[in-house]
Known about the structure:
The structure holds two protein chains of two kinds. In chain A, about 70% of the residues lie in helices and about 0% in strands. The radius of gyration of chain A is 18 Å and the shape is globular. Chain A is mainly alpha-helical. The longest helix of chain B is centred in the first third of the chain and has 21 residues, at about 10-30. Chain B has helices spanning about 10-30, 90, and strands spanning about 40-45, 45-55, 60-65, 70-75, 75-80, 100-105, 110-115. Chain B is rod-shaped and about 75 Å long.
Amino acid sequence: MAAIDPMTALRIKPDADDERIARFAAAAIALSIAEAAFPLPLPGVKPGLANIITLIVLSRHGFRDALWVGLLRVFAGSLLLGQFLAPGFFLSLCGALASLMVMGLAARFLPKNFGLVSVSLLGSFAHIAGQLVVARLWLVPHDGVFYLVPVFASAALVFGLANGLAAAAWLRAHPLNTCATTPPRA
Amino acid sequence: MQAHWRHLMKGGDWLMLVMLGGAVIVSFLLMWRGGAADKVVVRAGGKVFAEVRLAESKVLDVPGPLGLTRIEIQPGRARVAADPGPRQYCVRQGWLTAANSIAICAPNEVSLSLVGRNRPYDSLAY
């Protein structure tokens, strides 16, 4: 790699895209840290409130932005919670990647009479599927993990519905022209 | 926004919700049915003495070094009804209903185990 001219390095400035992504990612990180404070019955069963932000970004700014926000949330969230590179981080990362891929495809290819709630539901199921694949291949190399599928699937159904409704409600309450000046609230 | 959350659901969303809800119910049925036992295996001296479907009523007298161990099988459950052993642990376990549960009468070398379709662990492995 060629040496970077310090003048060039100094001239890198965040553009509007960067600032928007950073703002949404900050909201997503705040939500994942807030929900980490709640005691939960089973590791892996959690509301995934940060996905509300991902859904909003996906439907308003497209897949590229959603991917950025989703992955920044996983990395920064795990750093802040002390989970970075721990097993939970890889579960979270693979769940997020699977969920982002499926939501991106769903948002693009689902017929028009399917709304954001469908995208959210498919995303939450993809999230547990991604996590279970990693868990089965690496953390618990035994079919016993699939015993928990009904629990995870029930949680995905409930929280996928709730997050999808929340994102749809937010989008309805914040039409596009006001969004540019209003910081995201959740 | 209050009480208007239904307007946030499009027709396809309801369909998606119903389909995935069905998938959740199916996952419960598929994954958690292993708890139902459907066969009884009786062993004496380490060898299989009898295998009986857990759908019929039957009484087996199994010979061992101390005498006869009486095993009682009814639809959905089985127990050791009587045993010549000194401590009677296997008798006191009462009726067994879950797959992979097992009652062992060690002095008389007789064991009674319930088997489901798949056998991940027996009750001793917990």
